[in-house]
Amino acid sequence: MASACSIRVRGVVQGVGFRPFVYRLACANTLNGWVLNAEEGVEIHLEGAETGLEAFVRDLRAQPPPAASIAEIDVRPAEATGLHEFTIRTSQCRDRPTVRISPDLPVCDECSKELFDPADPRYWYPYINCTNCGPRYTVVVALPYDRPNTTLRNWPLDDYCSAEYADPANRRFHAQPVACPACGPSYYLYPHLHSRLQADHLQPDNDETTGGSEGSIRRAAEMLRAGAILAVKGLGGYHLACDARNPAAVAVLRDRKYRKEKPFALMVRDVEMAHTLVELSSEAEALLTSVARPIVLAPARIELSGVAPENNELGVMLPYTPLHHLLFAAGAPEVLVLTSANRSSEPIAYEDEDALHRLAGIADSFLIGQRPIARRVDDSVARAGALGPVVLRRARGYAPGAVASLPAEGPVLALGADLKNTITLVVDGQAFVSQHIGDLDHYQSLRAFHETIDDMVSMYKVPWDELLLVHDLHPQYLSTAYAATLGVHKSRTVQHHRAHVASVLAERGEWTKRVAGVSFDGTGYGDDGSIWGGEIFVGSVHEGFERVAHLRRAALAGGDAAAHYPVQAAAGFLAQVDGLPDMLAEPFAFPERYRNAMELVHRDVRTFATTSAGRLFDAAASLLGFTREVTFEGQAAMWLEQLARSASLTEPYPFPFIGTELDFRPLLQAVVLDRIRGRDVRKIGRSFQLGIAQGLRNALSVISRSHGLDTVVLSGGVFQNELLLEDLKSMLTEGERSLHVWTNHAVPPNDGGISLGQAALAALGQFDTIQQSGEHRRESSYA
């Protein structure tokens, strides 16, 4: 008599060839039954010999499809119904979905081979894909993941594609985005009327659009070689592309995009070319070639004029779509600038009409694909860090994957921070973190924020009245204001820096582990209404975090404006340093803005109390020569880090931990004195960085001993500083009193990880409120 079982598989199991894999596995073990996509994942019913069932479950666990990620397999006995074959059934939708949506996947080797095979029907077809590769998150509009629920729904399959789609032995069996030149979308080249191409032999025909994918792509490659700037439609939006080795083209792109100094990302033809541009460790190469295909930051081997000014790193990525491979095959330059298609700080353009409008003054021509993009998804950015791989911008290839399983009783929506925004939706305990959205003070980013919230909540069919809504403590955040408009019954606040620490623990599923948590960043609203940013906590996600220490308070002249002018930030710190020389004279040569800021500090006008470690780094950068306005977030601190990295190891400056404070005064005084003495600014920068690390090490040693802790958590934007992490790693993890050091890996340490931390604390019922003036959370003293 046949045995039977019912299997439910959760994880990334839809859109990754899982049902065809199950079909083949069942047939190989002579089993009957069925498989279908359901709200929670994949459901399987099997009937057959006990040995076959056992072999099926064993291989299901051990050999899933390459793009699948199994989170849970639930096997239960079932009643045999006498089935005589194994089938793939139509997807069912009985309840709201909880399945994990697959991120977009890079083109696989098999499709790449077919792409360049003249005998293959998909030869030179830019939308080639199969169950192992291609678009997922950027084409799905509803769950379950079936073709009618994708942006390919308006392209019916022809006989050739239908036969492959229905053939269990074919790798395109139930590949939802499958298409071919005969039945699918294509690319065309649209020349902009205001083209500024200089090459006389390559003036585009403004009266005609180049049609047909191959002709359009070959023409686009020709234009790139001639120095044109192209808007190229990709997976999650448009890119702006130009020849990275053409300084004139790069300079024009910077000018048109209003991007003064922020580094451009590069796409290289292959790994060998990447090695000629950057120093790739084995860990960095593994990131570069991973299924996520992120932009990977690595030390530069060469300088490309205008690509990354005053920066000793380059961000490189490999081709990940068939279109990219075709452009290089058509003769496009081997190293391309490939940057988000937008003006500086705006979100990436992804809708054709919007792109044509917004990029009209930037791109010379548009390489437009007909397949609609369901949602904007930028390229991810990562690096192989001192404490393991770290994602600095989480988007394509990672989003919207579940990054943690939270002990939440109901659905939770966490709105994140206003800078580098992401949102997190918790459904059935699974924390789905959105793609990078951006800075909400820009209208287009705020619109994207609204769209992403609606998108994720509707995708998972979560009733608004069931949501626990969580937002930042800051009463003037745009995300806070939007929370008030959603009409959700249960709305709570979580303090910014506690969310940073909680995000690290959430990644690890550590709810009760007590740690010393360090949150260093530029700004965040504190319990007392002041601007925090140099905080040390003790506690756990389960019990909450008590603020036990912090950076000594300084005055921030002009509030948020100080983040744009390092000398303005410096004024509030230097006001507490004795014996300062004339800072407007050499060797400091501060501009008049510093004098004005110092006057505000002395008069206590338009100044705000802060413990911001980010502004402390800005102050140090200004003392070493960075006295101009920053043109992108974190620029001065990055400049300081790279200055310090170019110096040999030296002695740290003093950064004492006294009571509950890290005192910056001796640290900055040492910088000032050595600058006056004429010490090499690179060595001064190195001593400053070492001083920060040593002071923090001393504070953590005292706090950890006092509270009986063995683990330290580091999070916040300051910990994107690799040199600081390298120093802390050697100081904290070596010797007799070594500590475990945990950092972010699945979500960014910057504000892109805040929403996960908010969701984690909310799931455990840990919320914060603004205290009345003078009422602070209890702080312990460590003499």
Which helices and strands appear, and what pairs or packs with what?
Elements: E1 3-12, H1 18-28, E2 32-37, E3 42-48, H2 50-62, E4 69-77, E5 86-88, H3 109-115, H4 159-166, E6 187-191, H5 213-225, E7 230-233, E8 238-243, H6 247-257, E9 265-268, H7 271-277, H8 282-288, E10 295-299, E11 313-317, H9 322-329, E12 335-340, H10 352-358, E13 365-369, E14 381-385, E15 388-393, E16 402-405, E17 412-414, E18 424-427, E19 430-433, H11 443-459, E20 468-472, H12 478-485, E21 490-494, H13 496-508, E22 515-525, E23 531-540, E24 544-551, E25 554-557, H14 566-574, H15 592-603, E26 607-610, H16 613-623, H17 635-645, E27 657-658, E28 661-662, H18 665-676, H19 681-707, E29 711-715, H20 722-732, E30 740-742, H21 754-763
Parallel strand pairs: 2-5, 7-13, 9-11, 10-14, 17-20, 20-21, 22-29, 24-28, 29-30
Antiparallel strand pairs: 1-3, 1-4, 2-3, 6-13, 7-8, 8-12, 9-12, 10-11, 14-15, 16-19, 17-18, 18-19, 22-23, 23-24, 25-26, 27-28
Quick structural overview:
With 783 residues, this protein is α/β, with parallel strands linked by helices.
Walk me through what this model shows.
- Helix content is 30%, strand content 20%.
- The strands form five sheets. It has a ten-stranded mixed sheet with strand order 6-13-7-8-12-9-11-10-14-15, sandwiched between helices. Strands 27-28-24-23-22-29-30 form a seven-stranded mixed sheet, sandwiched between helices. It has a six-stranded mixed sheet with strand order 16-19-18-17-20-21, sandwiched between helices.
- Strand 14 (381-385) and strand 15 form a beta hairpin.
- The protein is globular, with a radius of gyration of 28 Å.
- The N and C termini lie far apart (76 Å).
- Mean pLDDT is 93; it is low at 193-207 and 773-783.
